[in-house]
Specification:
With 143 residues, the protein is an alpha/beta fold. The protein has one domain: Cobalt-precorrin-4 Transmethylase, domain 1. The protein has 6 helices and 5 strands. The longest helix is centred in the last third of the chain and has 16 residues.
């Protein structure tokens, strides 16, 4: 089973969608806490509609987004701190439920985790992918 991750930092929407299509992704799991963006084409509704037109499903799993303190830490390059904040956040019941929803989705469809950061290593989506890899044996592919 493959699990994909993708960040849209510095990319136009069309390029991101093309990479998803080329990889055979069937559904994008948006794991941003805030699904709005100053980057054209990446706000929730517009992105969801564009993905749908490309034949890719879209789901926003808001409880899997990084809390504001974690986003602030990541912006300052404090990735360890961001991961600690995110790990604590993942103990909350809504996050646990959303993670189980993500797990089931990834088991049934080719899924890509979407967030902003181009480098997956500096993004909380890496922590989600690592957990699915460790617990469920997913092969993680960073697009």
């Amino acid at each position: 089973m493959k699990l994909f991750t993708i960040g849209y930092e510095g990319e136009p929407q069309a390029a991101v969608i093309e990479r998803l299509r080329a990889a055979g992704v069937e559904v994008v799991a948006d794991v941003r806490a805030v699904a709005s963006s100053r980057r054209a084409g990446f706000s929730k509704t517009l992105l969801g509609n564009s993905l749908h037109e490309a034949g890719i499903d879209y789901v926003h799993l808001r409880p899997l987004g990084t809390p504001k303190a974690g986003r602030d830490a990541a912006r300052k390059g404090r990735i360890g701190e961001m991961r600690d904040i995110f790990a604590e956040h993942m103990q909350e019941p809504p996050s646990q439920l959303a993670f189980e929803q993500l797990r089931e989705l990834a088991r049934t469809k080719k899924t890509a985790l979407l967030c902003f950061e181009a480098d997956h290593a500096g993004c909380h989506r890496a922590a989600l992918a690592e957990r699915l890899q460790a617990e469920d044996g997913f092969e993680v592919v960073n697009l």
